[in-house]
């Protein structure tokens, strides 16, 4: 019985909505001098939206390219995280926390930046420079600390993985520095 009253109330509200829309259409037609049964004209399409002096094949808006550098940074960060999983014993706690935070944090940041590019929600240039500088500092610091912690250890598989992880982190820090320079020199 309650569902019957809800359905009848919904029908009544829907009916009132259609009546209200019909009245609004009628009033609009009277105001514009248009007949109620006429069809609204199609919107006008402007074929020339470019300002004078701009070539039609020129890019219409600033869009930074999907950078191979960002993809390389992301893949190296994932590689460092994988190697970090297999060689986690970095000696001291600070090195382990710094490396874990850097690798995992920048996977999230870089994945978000690339997803934003794919959704055409571009990152501001200053923020991109900030993230690149931060990545450079964090990856270089993590790589140096990891190499320093493992350079005098006995030669084992874990040591080799850790030295490789530190080397890749240093390389990724240099790539972040190159990304910073390219982003800074990029025209607005």
Descriptive notes:
The chain has 188 residues and is mainly α. It has a domain at 64-186. The chain contains five helices and no strands. Helix 2 (68-86) runs antiparallel to helix 3, helix 3 (93-118) packs antiparallel against helix 4 and helix 4 packs antiparallel against helix 5. The radius of gyration is 30 Å and the shape is elongated. The mean pLDDT is 79.
Question: Which features would summarize this protein structure in a list?
Answer:
single chain; 188 residues; mainly alpha; 5 helices; 0% strand; elongated
Based on secondary structure, the structural category is mainly alpha
Number of beta-strand segments:
0
Number of helices: 5
Mean pLDDT: 79
Shape: elongated
Spatial gap, N to C terminus: 66 Å
Classify the oligomer. single chain
Query: Strand count, sense and closure of the main sheet?
Result: none
Approximate strand percentage: under 5%
Helicity, in percent? 55-70%
User: Would you list the SSEs in sequence order as H and E?
Assistant: HHHHH
Gyration radius, to the nearest Å?
30 Å
Which regions have little confidence, pLDDT < 50, spanning 5+ residues?
Answer: none
Brief overview, please?
One of its GO terms (cellular component) is plasma membrane. This protein is mostly helical and 188 residues long. Helices cover 70% and strands 0% of the residues.
Helix and strand topology:
Blueprint lengths: L1 H31 L35 H19 L6 H26 L6 H26 L6 H29 L3
Helix pairs in contact: 2-3, 2-5, 3-4, 4-5
Keywords: Membrane, Transmembrane, Transmembrane helix
Protein name: MARVEL domain-containing protein
InterPro entries: Ssk (IPR038976)
């Amino acid at each position: 019985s309650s569902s019957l009253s809800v359905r009848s109330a919904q029908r009544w509200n829907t009916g009132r909505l259609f009546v209200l829309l019909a009245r609004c259409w009628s009033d609009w037609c009277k105001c514009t001098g248009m007949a109620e049964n006429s069809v609204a004209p199609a919107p006008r399409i402007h074929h020339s939206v470019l300002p004078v002096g701009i070539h039609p094949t020129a890019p219409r808006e600033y869009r930074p390219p999907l950078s191979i550098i960002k993809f390389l940074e992301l893949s190296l960060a994932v590689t460092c995280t994988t190697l970090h999983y297999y060689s986690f014993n970095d000696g001291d706690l600070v090195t382990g926390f710094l490396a874990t935070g850097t690798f995992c944090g920048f996977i999230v940041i870089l994945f978000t930046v690339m997803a934003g590019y794919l959704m055409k929600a571009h990152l501001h240039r200053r923020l991109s420079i900030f993230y690149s500088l931060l990545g450079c500092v964090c990856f270089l610091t993590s790589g140096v600390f990891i190499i320093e912690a493992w350079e005098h250890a006995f030669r084992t598989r874990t040591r080799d993985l850790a030295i490789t992880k530190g080397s890749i982190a240093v390389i990724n820090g240099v790539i972040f520095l190159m990304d910073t320079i390219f982003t800074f020199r990029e025209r607005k």
